[in-house]
């Protein structure tokens, strides 16, 4: 945990030749659900998830609620066994006993939960939360040594003066302070990978930036590999090196952040980017692009019965016939960028760059279709 | 924790309930010493000069058909009844935790088996079973009675614990501590169980009431240690000697009243435990209302002294 562990290349936008620390290779997670009458069905929460986390780099996973981001994070954290595919930690597939990963796994991979109010036991003091991982993973015994390590951890997450916080109960702390305790607890393990499941979405806007800076410092000073899950493009842009976009359980686009945000190569990414508030843009631009106001843009599809072909086609202004029948292949666009969209193999990728006046011609029936679908699902 | 304790003792219900329970526990503990120290207060001595006497200066609560002092018997009975009540509650609660906690925490196949077990005990006809078991184990002492009551009385509690454990186990902090590498036993007993203390305390008190009542009921049916004295055996003896027909109310009213008192006291303490875990149930305390009103009155008086016109009323007159 010294500065020497920082890899030479951590500048954003460059590809890292180093082997990934944690990797998901084509993982799929299906959940069996049973309705009240006993009919079984399968929720396809994640399909074909492929993701690699490198030392000292931050990957953002963005997408709507229900797109499978959290499921993927929990797969990586070892809470679920993937239905198919493989999680690899430093190249070796993760072994499991009766569906649960072995304890050694969590020495390297830690998860930060979305809700700092729920992820600390209200009955335990801050001290307890930090001492347990120290005892478990580093066999730290002895009062003096424990105190020293706890103090160190709290200082690292800037909860100072330490005396003020160490004996507090969670309910005596604010949301941001709690999330710091949660991060300190994860750091106590000295993991190689930190998975942040929307770590700032429950925090006050005023302290979000502080939290992002804290995560950034952990990445650059300690060389942690970070997965940052969010639906907020702006914070992803601030913190991350790479962005992977998920839609309805599938990954649709990925690449270095600036390029993905500046020139989306998938219509869904474009929708996401356009949806994030930007004072410099006119309010009607997005409506012009998608030829519909926000309400009629539809909802993410049901994951029990996802649309055939490309899962985005019911909402896509560029949808073609092939989109409705066949899932698009992954197209590598160079420079670490890739997208899963029929526009690329069909040679229509250029249309994505133009502000969507021409898309409006065939968007009419599509938008109608999307509305149909939504009403069907609501029934 | 001290805050919890002082909060628990603040309500009048808990205070009354606890003092009644403490009174009876002291009676049970000091009973033998008391009856031995005071002459004429031997629960087993037969005073042939006073048979079936109503309360008098000699025998404060009268005597039985066998010339035994009812007061002495009631004191001695507290020992037997409370012993059975507490022991059966301990056994029942322990079994409920042992079955319910892993069922709720682990889920899956463990849950199916343990839940099957508790369902089995719920649908079992407990009373006939106890009759058979008690008949089989001849010379039943109070220990055996308590064991039987505890052993057949845990299933409902196990269901409650299971449901609560299930809900607590799925909360993020348990998952978070598991990610830290906490072993199952730590998670069970340090993360999940402390959240169930309210339920367990309530269950235990319920178990004490149930145990005392069940002992009385079993004794009434003739299943008890013939040598031991408890409130149940007193009522049974009174019934056998047709105390009701002879109008000997002093024989069965004291033990009956004691059972009712212990049950009421335990229920009152339970209310307090409930209020601790659910603040909405808390009734407004008079002292708080009075203090608020006083403060408001003082404030308005001070305002008037300062010559402030049109002051607003502070506080509530609720």
UniProtKB/TrEMBL annotation, chain A:
InterPro entries: AAA+_ATPase, ABC_transp_ATP-bind, ABC_transporter-like_ATP-bd, ABC_transporter-like_CS, Oligopep_ABC_C, P-loop_NTPase
Annotated protein name in UniProt: Peptide/nickel transport system ATP-binding protein
PANTHER family: ABC TRANSPORTER, ATP-BINDING PROTEIN, TRANSPORT ATP-BINDING PROTEIN
NCBIfam families listed in its UniProt record: oligo_HPY
One Pfam family recorded for the sequence: ABC_tran
Domain of life: Bacteria
Annotated keywords: ATP-binding, Nucleotide-binding, Transport
SUPFAM superfamilies per UniProt: P-loop containing nucleoside triphosphate hydrolases
Ranges for domain ABC transporter: 22-273
Record bears the keyword ATP-binding: yes
GO molecular function: ATP binding
Residue ranges, compositional bias (Basic and acidic residues): 347-356, 369-379
Recorded coiled-coil stretches: none
Chain intervals for the UniProt region annotation (Disordered): 347-379
């Amino acid at each position: 945990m010294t500065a020497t562990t920082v890899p030479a290349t951590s500048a954003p936008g460059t590809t890292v030749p180093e082997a990934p620390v944690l990797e998901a290779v084509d993982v799929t997670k299906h959940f069996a659900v049973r309705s009240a009458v006993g009919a079984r069905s399968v929720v396809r929460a994640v399909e074909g998830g492929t993701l690699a986390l490198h030392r000292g780099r931050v990957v953002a996973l963005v997408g709507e609620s229900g797109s499978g981001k959290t499921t993927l994070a929990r797969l990586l954290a070892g809470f679920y066994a993937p239905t198919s595919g493989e999680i690899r930690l430093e190249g070796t597939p993760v072994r499991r006993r009766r569906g649960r990963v072995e304890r050694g796994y969590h020495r390297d991979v830690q998860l930060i939960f979305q809700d700092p109010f729920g992820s600390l036991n209200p009955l335990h003091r801050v001290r307890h939360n930090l001492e347990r991982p120290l005892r478990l993973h580093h066999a730290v015994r002895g009062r003096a040594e424990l105190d020293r390590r706890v103090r160190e951890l709290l200082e690292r997450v800037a909860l100072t003066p330490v005396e003020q916080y160490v004996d507090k109960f969670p309910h005596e702390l604010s949301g941001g302070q709690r999330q710091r305790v949660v991060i300190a607890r994860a750091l106590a393990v000295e993991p190689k990978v930190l998975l942040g499941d929307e770590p700032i979405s429950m925090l006050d806007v005023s302290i979000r930036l502080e939290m992002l800076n804290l995560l950034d410092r952990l990445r650059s000073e300690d060389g942690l590999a970070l997965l940052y899950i969010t639906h907020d493009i702006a914070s992803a842009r601030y913190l991350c090196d790479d962005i992977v976009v998920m839609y309805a359980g599938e990954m649709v686009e990925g690449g270095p952040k600036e390029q993905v945000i500046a020139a989306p190569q998938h219509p869904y990414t474009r929708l996401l980017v356009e949806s994030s508030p930007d004072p410099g843009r006119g309010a009607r631009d997005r409506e012009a692009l998608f030829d519909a106001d926000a309400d009629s843009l539809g909802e993410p599809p049901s994951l029990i019965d996802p649309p055939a072909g490309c899962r985005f086609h019911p909402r896509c202004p560029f949808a073609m016939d092939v989109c409705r029948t066949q899932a698009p292949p992954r197209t590598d666009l160079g420079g670490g960028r890739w997208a899963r969209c029929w526009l690329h193999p069909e040679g229509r990728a250029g249309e994505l760059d133009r502000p969507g006046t021409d898309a409006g011609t065939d968007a009419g029936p599509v938008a109608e279709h999307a509305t149909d679908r939504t009403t069907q699902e609501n029934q | 924790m001290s805050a919890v304790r002082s909060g628990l003792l603040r309500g009048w219900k808990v205070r009354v309930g606890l003092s009644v329970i403490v009174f009876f526990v002291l009676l049970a503990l000091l009973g033998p010493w008391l009856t031995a120290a005071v002459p004429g207060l031997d629960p087993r001595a037969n005073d042939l000069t006073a048979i079936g006497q109503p309360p008098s200066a000699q025998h404060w609560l009268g005597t039985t058909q066998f010339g035994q002092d009812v007061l002495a018997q009631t004191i001695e009975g507290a020992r037997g009844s409370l012993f059975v009540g507490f022991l059966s509650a301990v056994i029942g609660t322990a079994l409920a935790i042992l079955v319910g906690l892993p069922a709720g925490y682990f889920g899956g196949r463990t849950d199916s088996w343990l839940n099957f077990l508790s369902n089995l005990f719920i649908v079992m006809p407990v009373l006939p079973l106890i009759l058979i078991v008690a008949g089989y184990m001849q010379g039943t002492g109070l220990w055996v009675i308590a064991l039987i009551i505890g052993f057949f009385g845990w299933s409902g509690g196990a269901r409650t614990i299971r449901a609560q454990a299930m809900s607590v186990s799925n909360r993020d902090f348990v998952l978070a501590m598991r990610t830290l590498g906490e072993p199952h036993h730590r998670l069970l007993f340090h993360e999940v169980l402390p959240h169930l203390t309210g339920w367990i305390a309530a269950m235990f008190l319920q178990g004490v009431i149930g145990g005392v009542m069940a002992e009385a009921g079993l004794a009434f049916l003739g299943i008890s240690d013939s040598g031991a004295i408890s409130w149940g055996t007193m009522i049974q003896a009174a019934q056998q000697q047709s105390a009701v027909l002879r109008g000997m109310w002093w024989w069965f009213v004291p033990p009956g009243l004691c059972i009712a008192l212990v049950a009421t006291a335990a229920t009152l303490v339970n209310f307090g435990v409930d209020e601790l875990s659910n603040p909405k149930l808390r009734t407004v305390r008079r002292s708080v209302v009075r203090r608020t009103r006083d403060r408001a009155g003082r404030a308005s008086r001070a305002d008037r002294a300062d010559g402030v016109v049109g002051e607003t009323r502070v506080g509530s007159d609720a």
